[in-house]
Amino acid sequence: MPAETLLTLVRDQLEDDKAGDIVVIDLSGKSSIADYMVIASGQSTRQVGAMTDHLLEMFRKNGLRGAKVEGRSRSDWVLVDSGDIVIHLFRPEVREFYKLEKLWSHDLPETAEASTAVQTA
Prior knowledge:
The protein is an alpha+beta fold. The protein has a single domain (3-96), classed as Beta Polymerase, domain 2 (2-Layer Sandwich). 42% of the residues lie in helices and 22% in strands. It contains five helices and five strands. The chain has helices at 3-16, 45-61, 92-98, 100-105, 114-120, and strands at 20-26, 36-41, 68-70, 77-81, 85-90. The protein has a five-stranded mixed beta sheet with strand order 1-2-5-4-3. Helix 1 crosses helix 2. It is globular. The chain starts with a helix and ends with a helix.
């Protein structure tokens, strides 16, 4: 499935789940870790957990297997890596603390390796 199609499915699912402040960052040309990064907020750990479950179910329904999930046990910050798209789901105060949007809003040098980008996160 093309990354753009998957991105549309992810955004639609997050909107259906009433995710707040959905931000899409195009990583093409900036990093080799993924094509897109999606950042969204849930108002509680329960909502963040439910959004995670719904994304994984949507992936399964669309034939996408092998998405990796980190942080699900606490649901303060959950990372869902589907390969082409990396999704960060936060509670608002945790999102404010880490400020991933600010980190990725600056263009990385063209010679930067993906590992350098991950180390600064």
